[in-house]
Structures are given as C-alpha cells and as structure tokens.
Design goal:
- Helices cover 34% and strands 36% of the residues.
- It is of the alpha+beta class.
- The chain has a single domain (3-90), classed as Alpha-Beta Plaits.
- The protein has a 4-stranded antiparallel β-sheet, with helices on one face.
- Strand 2 (37-46) and strand 3 form a beta hairpin.
- Helix 1 crosses helix 2 (59-76).
- The longest helix has 18 residues, at 59-76.
- The relative contact order is 0.30.
Length: 102
C-alpha cells in the first residue's frame, strides 16, 4: 500500500502564492529524484496556508520526505513559514478520472 505525507503549513500572511511558486520550481524536482516518489501537489487554503500532499511507495520514503521538505523549507523559504504539521499514513484510496495537475 502506498504511503502519504500530508503537511499543513501556516505561513506569514500573503506568502502562499510565493511558497507555491517556489515549491513547484524546486521541491518537485527534489522529490522526483527520490526513489519511491509517486506524486506531489499543493492546495492553497488561504493567503497564509497551504497543504502539501506527497505519495510514496514505502513508509520509510514518506518519512524521509519530511526531512527533505524541512531542509528545502530552511534553504528556500526564509522566514515565510510559521508552522508545519506533518502527518504520515497509508493511502486508503485515491480515485481520478483523468490525469491531475499541469
């Protein structure tokens, strides 16, 4: 069963669009280069909040994604992040009729 990392980010006000831009430009590539990577996306839930979702083949890969993301946050986001709440778990199901994303 595939594993998921869900991270809920509370950001400095008005920084969500910039965080999304930087994640798409850089963090996607870092995740894609990791063994076991399946998918990654962000959900903008407000001007100061995003939810990150990444899917991995194995639990240890999803766990490693927490550290990869934390390193990227320190390098790339400066003081834009107020708090991060990470959740790891098994993907119970995910349905899509078409490819999702850009």
């Amino acid at each position: 069963m595939q594993q998921v990392r869900v991270a809920v980010y509370t950001l400095k006000p008005g920084t969500a669009d910039e965080v999304i831009r930087r994640a798409e430009a850089d963090l996607v590539g870092r995740f894609r280069s990791e063994v076991g990577f399946v998918a990654y996306g962000l959900v903008k839930t407000g001007d100061n909040a995003v939810i990150s979702l990444s899917i991995w083949d194995l639990a240890d890969q999803a766990t490693a994604a927490v550290q990869i993301a934390a390193g990227w946050e320190q390098e790339s986001l400066g003081g834009m992040v107020d708090a991060v709440e990470n959740h790891l778990g098994s993907l119970a199901f995910f349905w899509a009729l078409v490819a999702i994303g850009r």
